[in-house]
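ugh ok fine here u go
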Amino acid sequence: MLWVTLFLGVLFFSLGFVITEQNASTLLSGYNTMSEEEQAAFPLKTYLKAFKRFHIRFGIFFTVFGTVLWFFSKEYAGYHLGITPILAYLVFFYQTKSLTNTTTNKRLYRLGTGVLIVTLIFIIGLFAWSERTSELVIESDQIAISGPYGVDISFSEIDSVALTEFPPEITVRLHGIATGKVSKGKFKGPNGSRFLTLIEHPADQYLFIYRTKDTPVIIALDSASELEVYERLKKLL
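structure:
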């Protein structure tokens, strides 16, 4: 997650220099869809100055603040990655609203702001949904895990189980949420490996359940002892 923070920080910072008067008609969203008359009336130089200033400042802030959070609270670092950029662009849209005072630009401003607000609500909702506590129950013929990304694992489809001291290495998030504390969803690891994680807290031990016809499930839940579940499964299997 630290590398993602650094990458995004550099990306935001670089955007301030990438878009210029020469390439704005191609790269600057909104401006590149204007008619020639609207482009001629648009205060491009003033807008680009505000655009550059915003991205330089935000790139530095995003990197420094995200790095500090990584060392002091990895959970909040995850929130920072998902929420801070949206809030920052909402502020930027509002600050430059007076520069986009045409019918087309007003429509684009309302559309862009609406999309950002909907996205922000969705991300906050996803964080709240994913952090709900999951429950694990060992039944007569299966493991039943309720809650976000819950799954029922039949004993007949379990190939093996393992207990490790380290969580899985995540390279790509396919679907789900990943903060310093919570990791729930479908992810990709080294060499293209895929797995489902149900991790609610940093742990000393992680339970790996390998399935014959599906991706492995990695568990570290507040409601269950990974060691106890592992020992019970070893006996049952």
